[in-house]
Amino acid sequence: ELTVQKPAKKEPGLIENIKSKIMSSSYVQNYILQQAQKKVMSQTQGLYPAPLKILDVIKQTLESGSKVGYNAEADVSTFYLIYNINEITKQIQNLF
């Protein structure tokens, strides 16, 4: 009879624990999000709103938890779906 043994989970070490504590700080999270927003703005010149919406969803998830984050993601997806349908409709109307 063959049995498969799962490897034992390794306990996080000191470095991982310190990193986890630092990353769970709201100050550090806000700083990282601000830096990401600056980089997005410099790369897109503010012409593409989707990356900023993604950062908003990440921020909501960090502040309020996964359930709120999933709802925010669904709202953004719905918004862009409707927006794209409206843009496609306008372009089709321009053809005629």
Number of helices: 4
Mean pLDDT: 85
Q: Poorly predicted ranges (pLDDT <50, ≥5 residues)?
A: none
What is the general shape?
A: extended
Number of domains: 1
- Given helix and strand content, the structural type is mainly alpha
Radius of gyration: 21 Å
Which bin fits the share of residues in helices? over 70%
- Portion in beta strands: under 5%
What is the CA-CA span between the terminal residues? 72 Å
Note the main sheet.
Answer: none
SSE succession: HHHH
Helix/strand layout:
Elements: H1 14-23, H2 26-44, H3 50-64, H4 66-95
Structure description:
By secondary structure, the protein is mostly helical. It has one domain (14-95). Helix content is 77%, strand content 0%. The chain has helices at residues 14-23, 26-44, 50-64, 66-95. α2 packs antiparallel against α3 and α3 (50-64) runs antiparallel to α4.
